[in-house]
Structure formats: structure tokens, C-alpha cells
Amino acid sequence: MDTDNKHPGIKSVGWALVQASRLHRSRTGDKLSELGLFAGQEQVLQALGNSGPMTMGELATILRVRPPTASKTVSRLSALKLVERHTEPGDARVVRVKLTKEGKRKAAAIESLWEEVEGELLQGFDNKDRKRLRKLLRRAAKNLAGFTGADQTGFETDDEVDVLEAGEPELAATA
Predict the structure, then answer these.
(1) Share of the chain above pLDDT 70, in %
(2) Most Cβ neighbours (<10 Å): which of 5, 9, 30, 110?
């Protein structure tokens, strides 16, 4: 009996997305463990590596998590001496987080790891397919963010994703 075609969600975009996401997370997690990190920690290091020092609130917003979740991850990374926390002069309630030298090294290694896993994920995709997939996933995430009350910014960057690739009418018509 062919069970591959019997899954009730086989024609569901959401089901396919969850499966791809789980496999991506598993592969990334395997690679992160080689660096002594756990899934989720790399996102903090990447955010700080790309944007520089930021407040806990800014970090939580970028990661699309609640501040206590960001704080918990930062505490773990601080114990590993990958990030430092400093209170803002004049307002001790504001805590800024920044990478240590070792954190910067890990962030660079994560960037390389991320590119490797992305290459594996998108093997056989041409550049047009890669851009289209990225745009469609951003649009889907933005749709859900609207229903959940989450921050909807940051889904269509890359110059509004190159003005919807300037020539893909099926995407531009639904944007």
C-alpha cells in the first residue's frame, strides 16, 4: 500500500510548509550542534551580527518573539560568553545586548552554515524560483501576521522584493 499519497494533508500548502520547515530546522539544528549551539540561538546571534547592539525589545521584535523568550535565549548566550548585556546609561530599565568577540566568530560561522543549509534546501531551484518562493513565503507570513496581530513589517524587504520582480504579473496582480 502506498502511504505517501494517503496523508490527509498531502494537497495542503500548510502541510508541505510545516514538513519543509521541520526538516530545515532539523538540518540546521544538526549543524548548530557542531558549533555548540541549539536551534533558536543562531537567530539572536545573526540579528546582533547584522544590526549591532540593540535593546531586548528591539531584539524580540526582530525575532518575532515575546520579550521573555528573547531574554531567556540571551541569558543562555550570555552564559556561553557569546553576548553581553549592559544597562543604558541614565535608564537602568533599558538593557542593550551586543556580541562578544567569540559571539562575532560564531555569527560568522552561522552565516556560513545558514548558506550551506539554504543551498541544500534550494538544490535544483534556479534564481527565479528562489526569489519567487521567498516572496510567496513572505506574503503568506504577512497574511498570517495580520490575523494574529503580529508585527507585519519586514516581510517585503529587498526593495519590496525588487518591485515584485518587475515582470511577474501573477504575483504583482495579487500583491
Answers:
(1) 82
(2) 110
